Amino acid sequence: MAALLDPLTGDDLLHVRVLQAECISIDSGWNARDVRSAYWRFYVNSRDGASVLLADGAYPLRGGWVHLIPAWVPFSCRNGERLTHLYAHFDPVGVPGALVRELFPRPLSFKPDAALAEAAQRLASALAERSALAERTQSTPALLCQVKAVLYQALAVTFASLPADRVTRCFGLASGRDPVVPALRYIEDHLVEPIANAALARVCAMGVDHFIRRFRAHVGQTPAQYVLERRVAQAAQRLLYSSESIETIAESGGFPDRFYFTRVFTRRMGLAPAAYRRNGRV
């Protein structure tokens, strides 16, 4: 895991942004269809019974195991048992969607060691206690750190199982020394504005044609594709985690109008914005 630290600067090359964490009971009502998100999911179930359905078949969520569903993986849910469901939605910041799809095309599962199993159980108890106290909208710094600690342990197992070249690929852009990183940062700061390739090339001190080739080689998408995906990803999170209207999300998210937003969002996420919001968080 030394690759997670920049050998020259010691900079932390990975951090996780937590969107949601809960410990709930689920039953046969846990049956959302055509789920696809721009964030990752962490699941630990108390017993067998639940599955996610992929294009090539069912993927059982074994009780007591850690399950990670990477961003952009499309799936549906199926459950026939009443069970306790510990889950977290999170975003490993700085890893482009195209790279996630290349390196993590399917869910990941493993039996946790004693330390991670105990940490997950403590987290489940803390989240259940918060829910019982009707404080679900409040997260203390201690609880947030507890969630992140469990997620980092799960990611440590995941990245330790990857070949070294894939780990290097995954964190090359997060290191800050990649030549197209200034463009990625510029895009995040200007998502609601028109973004021209010339402006991106300029912040990277490159000619436009050379920049486009380098960007595609390093990120796996053209600049325009990446910008559109980032806008859709932010809109998807706002649909689930805010009460803003679809019109507001579209207009303040860099889309000219709701109709164009709906067309682009549906093509990328598999559901129209209103249906995506109704599908909820699973």
Main beta sheet strand tally, sense and closure: 5 strands, antiparallel
Residues in helices, as a percent range: 40-55%
Topology as a string of helices (H) and strands (E): EEEEEEEHEHHHHHHHHHH
Major sheet strand order: 1-7-2-5-8
Number of helices: 11
Distance between the termini: 30 Å
Number of strands: 8
Overall SS class: alpha+beta
Strand residue content: 15-25%
As residue ranges, the low-confidence spans are 1-10
Number of domains: 2
- CATH class designation of the largest domain: Mainly Beta
Which CATH-level-2 architecture of the largest domain? Sandwich
CATH topology of the largest domain: Jelly Rolls
What does this structure look like?
- With 282 residues, the chain is an alpha+beta fold.
- The longest helix is centred in the middle third of the chain and has 20 residues, at 141-160.
- 45% of the residues lie in helices and 17% in strands.
- It folds into 2 domains: 2-162, Regulatory protein AraC (Jelly Rolls), CATH 2.60.120; 181-279, Arc Repressor Mutant, subunit A, CATH 1.10.10.
- It has a 5-stranded antiparallel sheet with strand order 1-7-2-5-8. A 3-stranded antiparallel sheet has the order 4-3-6, with no helix packed on it.
- The chain has helices at 97-103, 114-132, 141-160, 164-172, 181-189, 197-203, 208-219, 223-241, 246-251, 258-269, 273-279; strands at residues 16-26, 40-45, 50-54, 57-60, 66-69, 76-79, 83-92, 108-110.
